[in-house]
Amino acid sequence: MGQYIVFDGMDGSGKGTQMKLLQERFGATAVFTREPGGTPFAEEIRRVVRDNPLAATSTGLNNFLLFWAAREELQQNLVAPALQAERHVFSDRGDSSTYAFQLWGEQHRELLGLFKLLRYFVFEKSRERRAPDLYIIFDLHPRIARERVMADSAREQNHFDMRDLEYYQRVREGFHSFASQWPAVFLDATRPPAEVHQDVLDLLASRGIVP
Ligand code: TYD
What's the gap in Å between 74 CA and the centre of ligand 1? Predict the structure, then answer.
């Protein structure tokens, strides 16, 4: 049976590098996707919610709903069919991001009830659907994440100011709160990428997931 594994963490956690290393290992034997996105329509929603500056002028509720809209689309057209075909699905981000960023980072904790309701409808309501089996969260102090982002010349600079540090501290707390309610494992992301990658492979192997 295929398993659904979500990889998550804050910017600078090295999550992208880890996804790339994993993809090199597993190749086409597993399905790799991302949120928001992963299907043509969900990628359109990604352009609206992530890339269009107008999204920043909208409400917290609206952004929250757009992330869930992209997720519903992804489940229907990619994740559920892949799991039914007994393939493993590895996703770069998932509902753990909505929980950490929208509820905690952006301080919309009033959306918790709606979060749980949408989780039920999107992941559990129909027999074809399934909630992620495991969330692997790449964890590190926001200050170190910030240093990494600043040192990466390919990335946009200067958007990680002091307010962002507090924001990402809340995001980190959000991931910990998420992990107290849903199945998650934290990996120390301050270590060298190869070491973290080995941990990921060991963790997956312990669940019977091998390339
Ligand atoms: P992206 O550039 O893909 O970030 P990364 O490479 O670090 O994954 O942009 C995704 C952004 O969207 C990221 O800042 C986190 C945010 N996000 C949310 O705020 N809520 C969500 O539900 C998801 C899936 C992502």
Answer: 15
- What's the rounded Cα separation, in Å, for the pair 111 and 113? 6
Instruction: Please name the residues in contact with 93: beta carbons below 8 A apart, sequence gap of 6 or more.
Output: 6, 7, 8, 34, 35, 36
pTM for the complete prediction?
0.95
Residue 131 DSSP SS3 = coil
Cβ–Cβ under 8 Å, residues 6 and 132 = yes
Q: How far apart are CA 37 and CA 47, in angstroms?
A: 9
- 48 C-alpha to center of ligand 1: Å? 13
* Nearest Cα residue to atom 25 of ligand 1: 97
Judge if the beta carbon of residue 3 lies within 6 A of ligand 1: no
- Does any ligand 1 atom lie closer than 6 A to the CB of residue 139? no
Output the CA 9–ligand 1 centroid distance in Å: 9
Q: Which atom of ligand 1 is nearest to the CA of 37?
A: 24
Residue pair 100/8 in contact by the 8 Å Cβ criterion: yes
10, two tokens: 């804050």
pLDDT in tens for each of the 211 residues of the chain? 899 999 999 988 999 999 999 999 999 999 999 999 999 999 999 999 998 889 989 999 999 999 999 999 999 999 999 999 999 999 999 999 999 999 999 999 999 999 999 999 999 999 999 999 999 999 999 999 888 888 876 766 554 455 688 999 999 999 999 999 999 999 999 999 999 999 999 999 999 999 9
